[in-house]
Amino acid sequence: MRNLMIGFGLVLVGCGGVTPMTGDYLGTATLIADTCGMDEESAVGDSDDFESNIVFNEDGSVVLDGDDSFACTADGATVTCSMSDSQSGEGADYAINQEFVAELVWDSNTSFAGSQTMSIDCEGADCGLLEDYGYSFPCSTDWDIVGTMAEDAAE
Known about the structure:
Elements: E1 23-34, E2 47-56, E3 62-64, E4 71-75, E5 78-88, E6 95-108, E7 111-123, H1 127-131, E8 139-149, H2 150-153
Antiparallel strand pairs: 1-2, 1-8, 2-3, 4-5, 5-6, 6-7, 7-8
């Protein structure tokens, strides 16, 4: 399972003269730690490239690829976004709780670096059923993320 949540929220007047720009960004997410092991095709050190359209709105909100469902806050040029999800087991007493948190810092008007963590926990009497399949809870998966506006990356 490969979930990369990269939602952004940001005040347009960044610190140190950094004012992040709206546009298409090219990025790379590198897996740096994985105690969940849910993505058997990826190993620590593997990288995935992504493309994303990032829109910085006048009210300080930011929309990624037209999806404004991620909760984001900004402190200067540092952006923190989070999303939570919980799924109950059908016919069993367990709930899988996932939390995604990303922190990104714009180091120029057109580039950022940061990290993302996916944390997973299980609640309920039947969590042991999942552990019988090799899953252990709680666990987390961490990525380093870098991105540059597509126009800059082409130069």
